[in-house]
Amino acid sequence: MKLHTVHEGGGLCRTIEVTVVQRQAPQLPPVTKFSPVADESETTGEELYIPPLNFAMVDNGIFRSGFPDYPNFAFLQTLGLRSIIYLCPEPYPEANIEFLKSNGIELFQFGIEGCKEPFVNIPEDTIREALKAVLDVRNQPLLIHCKRGKHRTGCLVGCLRKLQRWCLTSVFDEYQRFAAAKARVSDQRFMELFDVSSFRHLPISFSCLKR
Amino acid sequence: MKLHTVHEGGGLCRTIEVTVVQRQAPQLPPVTKFSPVADESETTGEELYIPPLNFAMVDNGIFRSGFPDYPNFAFLQTLGLRSIIYLCPEPYPEANIEFLKSNGIELFQFGIEGCKEPFVNIPEDTIREALKAVLDVRNQPLLIHCKRGKHRTGCLVGCLRKLQRWCLTSVFDEYQRFAAAKARVSDQRFMELFDVSSFRHLPISFSCLKR
């Protein structure tokens, strides 16, 4: 299903495309059980989980990572996800869509181009819409991901941290931990200038900001 | 108050010193309100929180960081902590003890020396005791910290991840994200060889491992 959200601002009419693959709870096919991989060490003989690249917990019910692939599905099942917040413009792979469908996970796609410096232009409106989806408790637990979990995901999480009233140094520290050698000044400038005041009225129940 | 836990193993009798500053809920003095710092940007006029260096959420009710200092206290208050798992042998600073007392936070100290390679000798028994304290839901929400939140904290979190059945690559990926240029082969070897089988019987209610 495609949702087209139209925004008016600064005399311009911009269209933000948000693709939502709806949860089909009542007609769910039987959940495919993905198995963790066998532990090759002879000491335990147990199976292991493979979290996606750059996986981390952001806050209660909010996770982040790079692009999850088939080997990560068993791990993702342990998170009990309700939604995926996908930040790339490319179509979601068929295998991932199947995984989402069979686990009743909704897909929110916010297509942000993965530009390289100095031609980076992070679309503020799209980040705003994505942040709204992240803050909606009905979508949690959720996983935010782009391709490598560094730039687009880093910017969105950084904006969330600003809303949690983290000082910029800590926002950048976290961003750089994931982006490492690929950290971008333009991303950090975007986060610095991102105005969170319009989100202040929203109810937030994070562990990192009791209010 | 000092607790001395005696362990027998391999014919040797080892003593592990665990310092516990007990929560004094009934006789609590009035909670000191630590204020976040003023935001210098004129756009919001709001106050900001300063998370400790290398702060992150590990899982539900489990946080990690470097050594928290006075400027971080307002932020720490938002976490609603019940305990601190402190991994250095040095006495806890007076200001931090006061903060803990006035917020009813219990201190568990597991004194692990901060050695440098190639003379690293991570005491397995102490990590085991610390992991037990971390897993005890009565102590959560809790903050694990050492000095910089890289090596001692990284090893303890890595052992927790093994218990959560993360594959070693992901355990190391997370360790290296925090240790960065200071990552140690000896720490990684310790995590690889750490046997979690004795913890398997404990009830665990993490989001990253539903079982």
UniProtKB/TrEMBL annotation, chains A, B:
CDD domains per record: PFA-DSP_Siw14
Signal peptide residues on this chain, from the entry's feature table: none
Domain Tyrosine-protein phosphatase positions: 54-208
One Pfam family per UniProt: Y_phosphatase2
Record field: catalytic activity: 6-diphospho-1D-myo-inositol pentakisphosphate + H2O = 1D-myo-inositol hexakisphosphate + phosphate + H(+); 1,5-bis(diphospho)-1D-myo-inositol 2,3,4,6-tetrakisphosphate + H2O = 1-diphospho-1D-myo-inositol 2,3,4,5,6-pentakisphosphate + phosphate + 2 H(+); 3,5-bis(diphospho)-1D-myo-inositol 1,2,4,6-tetrakisphosphate + H2O = 3-diphospho-1D-myo-inositol 1,2,4,5,6-pentakisphosphate + phosphate + 2 H(+); 5-diphospho-1D-myo-inositol 1,2,3,4,6-pentakisphosphate + H2O = 1D-myo-inositol hexakisphosphate + phosphate + H(+)
EC number: 3.6.1.52
Origin superkingdom: Eukaryota
PROSITE patterns: TYR_PHOSPHATASE_1, TYR_PHOSPHATASE_DUAL
A GO MF label: inositol-5-diphosphate-1,2,3,4,6-pentakisphosphate diphosphatase activity
Key words, A-Z: Hydrolase
The keyword Hydrolase is annotated on this UniProt entry: yes
UniProt-listed InterPro entries: PFA-DSPs, Prot-tyrosine_phosphatase-like, Siw14-like, Tyr_Pase_AS, TYR_PHOSPHATASE_DUAL_dom
Sequence similarity: Belongs to the protein-tyrosine phosphatase family. Atypical dual-specificity phosphatase Siw14-like subfamily.
Protein name: diphosphoinositol-polyphosphate diphosphatase
